[in-house]
Each structure stands twice: as C-alpha cells, then as structure tokens.
Amino acid sequence: MAQTPTTVTITGAGGQIGYALLFRIAAGDMLGPDRPVRLRLLEIPQGVRAAEGAALELQDAAFPLLRDVEVTESADVAFHGCNIALLVGARPRGPGMERSDLLAANAVIFGPQGAAIAGHAAADVRVVAVGNPANTNALIARAAAPDVPSHRFSALTRLDHNRALGQLSAALDRSVDGIRNVTIWGNHSATQFPDVAHATVDGAPVFDALAARLGGPDAAARWLDETFIPRVAKRGAEIIAVRGSSSVASAANATIDHVRDWVRGRPADRGWTSAALVSRGEYGVPEGLVSSFPVTSDGTGYRIVEGLDLDARAARLVEASVAELIAERDAVRELGIL
Ligand code: NAX
After folding, report:
1. Any idea of the CA torsion for 58, 59, 61, 64, to the nearest 10 degrees?
2. Do 51 and 88 contact (CB within 8 A), yes or no?
3. Which residue lies with its CA nearest to atom 38 of ligand 1?
4. How much is the pLDDT for 336?
C-alpha cells in the first residue's frame, strides 16, 4: 500500500535556510527514502515570490518522494495536518533594537504560529524552532499551544553540536565519525556550554586524546577554555565575518539531522547528541525553559540523558547559560506575552 505522505511545514521558506532545506527534504534526506512528503511553505508577502520560485524549482527537480508543494501566507493553511513544523522565519535584530524589542518582534510571529499548530496540526506534530532567538521562540510557540504535549516542541542546537564535532575532529586529526557524547548545554547563543567531559574519540576520552596531542592535561584544558568553547559558541559570527553572510547550508544540514534523529531514531552505538527541549527540571534547569541537553532518540521522541556528573566548573557554565534563558523568559513575561 502507498505510504501516506508526511506533511512538512517550513516557515520562512523563501529565505536562505529555507532554500537549502527544501531540496534535501524532498530528496528524502530528512525522513528517509521510504517516506513521501508534502511541503507547505509559509511566508510573509515580501517572501512569497521567492518561495514560489523555489516551488517551481522543486517541480523541475522531479523528486520521486515529493507529492505536493503549497505556498501560503496563512499559518492556518500552512499548519493544516502538519506532522513536522520547521519554524525558520524570524525577525532579525535590526539597528538599535534592544533585546526586548527583538523578543517582542518574534513573539508576534511565534505566538500565532504556536496557536495555529495547536489548532490545525496533526496529533503527532513535532516542532523545531530554528529562527532566533530559537530557544525562547520555541518557548513562546509552546506557550501558545498548551494542549500540545511539551515534548513535541524543540529548538535547534544541533548546529552547535556539529560545530563542536568539527572542531574536535580538526584538533585531534580524527574522523568526526569516531567522536561520541559531546553535549551542548543551555541557549543557542554565545553563552552556550559545549562540554566534552564525557566525550570519547575512537573509544578513549577526548580529554586524554587532546592532552596527548597538545602536550599534557594543562594544555588540553587551556585549549578547551580558550579556543574550543569560544570558537564553537561564536562560530556564527566567524562565518558571517568570513563568508559575508550567516550560516545557511550548515544550519539546514543540522535541521535535517535534528529531525531525522527525532523521527527515525539514532542508533544506540552513536551515543547521544544535543537538542533544546522543554525542561521538566532536569539538571536543575527550571521547568518549562527550552534548554539544550544531551539527548538520545529511539524514534518515538527525544529523551534527555540523565545522571551525568557535572563538576563545579561545568555546573557554573550551564547555570550561566540557563540564567540567560531565564532572563529572556522574564523579559517576554514583562511584555505580557507569556
Ligand atoms: P532569511 O532572512 O534569508 O530568511 C528568513 C525568511 O523568513 C524570509 O524569507 C522572511 O520573509 C521570512 N519570514 C519572516 N517573518 C516571517 C513570518 N512571520 N512567517 C513566515 N515567514 C517569515 O534568514 P535565514 O538565513 O534563512 O535564517 C533564518 C533564521 O535562522 C534567522 O532567525 C537566523 O538567525 C536563524 N538561524 C538559526 C540557527 C540555529 O542554529 N538555531 C543557525 C542559522 C541561523 O542563524
């Protein structure tokens, strides 16, 4: 029997990340070669022509898995029957914009989209906020959909996770493939904590491998503090400085990775990855915040890996990033949005 297509809604589909995402989804990279897809592209009037152009190109690519593409300005139409919601479109920070202005500008996007998801999406909907500030945008969407279980909402920190793998691979001169159990904690921002305390490379602790390569444990600790953490946390700015434009293909790739592992599962021998999920109090993160954690997936949903030891320094770094999430949540509350 022919499979029912999975409905994937992409907001901001006429933008850069949207363009990099659409063709990979239609090719089957996200949901697998056995899952037909139906695409719903949500845009605002300024972005509609670009989305329509992408839809024409999708037709020209003749993807066997692609059943249907619809471009719309209506969130209700876009999320009708939606199984996977990729919330990419967001309001960027403009000149002179304070953080509260940015949060308010995005709340009027992500609040109504959350409500439209609650009203129109399929019961099995899974939502990932990519548009920044991603964690708090997910929190806002989730708050507007109180009847949708909180485990159906997430925000993207997989790009940070992949960036961390890339930096370790280069420093150790080992394949990314052999690295396991890196964690991104906290916010998708410069306060995030990329943590390798439990990470291994080809079965041995990453820290020991770094120490062997860099000239001892002190040198390894210094590299982690002075090079690795700031480089991963500020990689977005580095890409802008070098490329003249923000991360696009790597962000789309991470979005594909995030949804693929969530929906299809992740082999246990690959270890954990990172995703921002709605906290139920794990690791002392206040309930309801959307914070990045170590996660596994058996295909039914992401599970937070619990019980990891955090030393005093790691606990302080997690707390600092979570403090930023609390401040964002409180700023949104002050605006009367939550
Ligand atoms: P673009 O400016 O190229 O595209 C954004 C698109 O969203 C535009 O076409 C715009 O018309 C549309 N849009 C705006 N408001 C909308 C609304 N209310 N409904 C539907 N569509 C709307 O940006 P792009 O490079 O694609 O980046 C998109 C977002 O991803 C930005 O917020 C960016 O900061 C964020 N990123 C998040 C990352 C992450 O790891 N979480 C990394 C990459 C990226 O920086």
Report:
1. 100
2. no
3. 130
4. 85
* 287: helix, strand or coil: coil
Q: Which residues pair with 87 in a beta bridge?
A: 11, 129
Q: Which CATH architecture fits 158-331?
A: Alpha-Beta Complex (3.90)
Residues of the chain with pLDDT under 50: none
Residue spans of the domains in the chain: they are 6-155, 158-331
**Token duo for residue 225:** 């503090």
Using the structure block, give the residue that is written with the tokens 């403090």.
Answer: 323
Across the chain, where does the E strand assignment appear? 6-11, 37-42, 66-72, 84-87, 126-129, 153-155, 179-180, 183-185, 193-195, 200-201, 204-205, 273-278, 290-297, 302-304
User: What confidence score (pLDDT) does residue 47 get?
Assistant: 98
pLDDT of residue 201: 98
Residue 80: active-site member:
no
Tell me which of 3.40.190.10, 3.40.50.720, 3.40.220.10, 3.40.1190.20 is the CATH number of domain 6-155: 3.40.50.720
Pairing relationship of beta strands 290-297 and 273-278 according to DSSP bridges: antiparallel
What is the dihedral sign for C-alpha 183, 90, 242, 21?
Answer: positive
For ligand 1, the distance from its centroid to the CA atom of residue 87, given in whole angstroms, is 8
Same CATH topology for 6-155 and 158-331: the answer is no
Q: Which of 80, 120, 161, 188 is catalytic?
A: 188
CB–CB of 5/70 below 8 Å?
A: no
The pLDDT, as a whole number, for residue 1 is 54
Please state, in angstroms and rounded to a whole number, the distance separating the CA atoms of residues 291 and 277: 6
Q: Give residue 338's pLDDT.
A: 82
Task: Reduce the DSSP state of residue 299 to 3 states and report it.
Answer: coil
Q: How many CB atoms lie within 10 A of CB 287?
A: 10
Contacts of 170 (CB under 8 A, 6+ apart): none
Q: Is the CB of 111 under 6 A from ligand 1?
A: no
What is the β-pairing status of strands 153-155 and 273-278?
Answer: antiparallel
Q: Is 236 left (phi over 0), alpha (psi -120 to 50) or beta?
A: alpha
